[in-house]
Amino acid sequence: GNSVTQMEGPVTLSEEAFLTINCTYTATGYPSLFWYVQYPGEGLQLLLKATKADDKGSNKGFEATYRKETTSFHLEKGSVQVSDSAVYFCALRSGGTSYGKLTFGQGTILTVHP
Amino acid sequence: EAGVAQSPRYKIIEKRQSVAFWCNPISGHATLYWYQQILGQGPKLLIQFQNNGVVDDSQLPKDRFSAERLKGVDSTLKIQPAKLEDSAVYLCASSIGQNYNNEQFFGPGTRLTVL
Asked: Which residues of chain B fall below pLDDT 70?
């Protein structure tokens, strides 16, 4: 079955530091890949997505590239801000008979200090 | 555009009691999802509706959990009787369709504590 594995957390950084959150996946077929973000007290929000190999998703300074050869979709940001403090979830979604079900990783807590 | 609404936001009950959660999806969204998010884990799909029909309930513990979406709009998720391990955040999401390219929009969730 489908599965997503995220790097162990939590991650604590100083403002303006470089961020990488690793994500690898196992899936049949050709899934779409997503990063969701959950700010304190709010619901999950889609941060970025990529639907095919070598696609790069980007939003709000965050980027992730769909690497089929390494089955990875690592999240990066060049300079984090305090407002980026949140929980980040990597997820995949495949077609076929799964009816578009999202499969999530366990989440990575990011805390950014001034 | 109004987002996905859920109520209540918080609920505390004792084990063996029953509880119900309500979700109102984004207007016009045919597909509705209920996820369970246990602390420290990612959300896990419990049930997916397409209009008022169930598409996937393979991970719903049917001996105690039930869900309905009678008119293809609002949905309720019920737990009866609750167990300690049901303590979690219950997330409702909706999408315009069930195609895997249709974005899912999430509500704020209901945090359930079972004592």
From this structure: 1
